[in-house]
Amino acid sequence: MPHPPDASEPTLRLGVSLLCALLWVAHDPAHASGGSYGGGGALLFPLHKTVVRVVSLHIALEDGALSAPPVKGWRVQGVYTLENPTDQPVKVQIAFPEFACPAGASHACELLGGAGGASFLDLKTWVGFKEVKLGSGRVSKTTVGGRPLRRVHTFELTFAPREVQKVRHTYRFGSSSLLGSNRLSYVTRTGALWSGPIGKAIFTVRTASRPYGWRVPSDLQIMRYTQVLEENHGDLYLTDLVLEQRDWTPKGD
To answer: How wide is the angle at C-alpha 205 spanned by C-alphas 203 and 207, nearest 5°?
Structure first.
């Protein structure tokens, strides 16, 4: 567990309303005095009631500054292990929401997607080792906690009896800022729409900042928290935070 915070260091906090509201000193001084919206992600969910359950999921979020070459915003990879626990074949339509830029949002929201208001780029999805083409669907805004939606990406899975399949998707969304800190949000309430609890959920966050304090939702456990000084990059720290829960039903925001 980390030592008590020193008030002179930057900040990282995990809020309760979404998965997380991570805050730390912003890299861009232009954002230090105001706020901007960059985007956010969410858990995959079934469009309609299903018997398919989530055996496990692993959501990895990495600051694009750590990419080679560096990119803007956050890079996300989600890996889901899904199971049809019945003796009958099953089809399920899976949805993934792309949130719209709020009215009056600053340039951070359009940093990746342009004036069309996209909140992320480079979305790709694989079932097993095969990339799938994404369609579009509709969901109520209440499904995603009232967040404005730009579009809902969808694809279909067909399961044989007792079959287990892996789904992987990757995408990128822009960084938000608030009063001199960067902010990261990820909607988890959609995970409650699967059949039964999620067997195992892991969230990892990697940043190029050195946080000194944070708080996490009570239903997620801190499994690891590390800071490593990069000697070849001045005072750059690699910070990894790993949260986990088993038999997890995400609560409302």
So the answer is: 180
Residue 145's SS3 state is coil
pLDDT at 89: 98
Q: Identity (one letter) of the amino acid at 245?
A: Q
Burial 95-126 (b: 16+ CB within 10 A, else e): bbbbbbbeeebbebbbbbbeeebbbbbebebe
Report which of 45, 41, 53, 50 is spatially closest to residue 137, judged by C-alpha positions: 45
Contact 42, 144 (CB under 8 A): yes
- The encoded tokens of residue 103 equal 């009215």
- 164 φ/ψ angles, rounded to the nearest 5 degrees: -115, 135
Q: What is the CA radius of gyration of the chain?
A: 18
Say yes or no to pLDDT of 34 above 80: no
> Residue 120 — pLDDT band, cuts 50, 70, 90?
confident
Strands 45-46 and 53-63: unpaired
| Torsion angle, alpha carbons of 50, 155, 176, 201, to 10 | 40
Q: In a 3-state reduction of DSSP, which class is residue 10?
A: coil
CB 123 within 8 A of CB 131: no
Q: What is the mean pLDDT of residues 183-192?
A: 86
**Cα 201 from Cα 186, distance rounded (Å):** 14
pLDDT of residue 251: 81
**C-alpha 32 chain-centroid distance:** 24
141 φ/ψ angles, rounded to the nearest 5 degrees: -65, -25
Query: Which uninterrupted H or E stretch holds 167?
Result: strand 164-173
CA distance 30 to 110: 16
Question: What is the average pLDDT value for the chain, to the nearest integer?
Answer: 79
Q: What is the pLDDT of residue 108?
A: 53
